[in-house]
Design brief:
This protein is mostly helical. It has five helices and no strands. The chain is elongated.
Length: 96
């Protein structure tokens, strides 16, 4: 599961940046959605963020100003997905 996050995250960043500069195509979004569906298990937050982006893109793709916050949300989901897991998360003496 974790191994599939990096390629999807890379594609998601590309899609988010293309959305911000106005060069995103429906094919880009469909390829990202397909990649997330193939590489990420259900319940992985990045997969949900990609599907949310694809849905929102269909609704607002002709309104660039409305697409910017959707792209920002996708970019933020990538940042969260790539955060390393804290070591010794189970230790109460460190994390309470």
């Amino acid at each position: 599961m974790r191994a599939g996050i990096r390629p999807v995250a890379s594609s998601a960043v590309t899609v988010a940046l293309k959305a911000k500069v106005g060069s995103l195509t429906p094919m880009d979004v469909e390829q990202l959605r397909t990649q997330a569906e193939e590489l990420l298990d259900e319940g992985v937050p990045l997969r949900g963020a990609v599907f949310d982006f694809a849905t929102q893109y269909e609704l607002v793709r002709r309104a660039p100003d409305e697409l910017l916050p959707v792209a920002d949300a996708l970019f933020q989901a990538v940042q969260v997905a790539l955060r390393p897991e804290p070591p010794d998360l189970h230790r109460r003496d460190i994390h309470g």
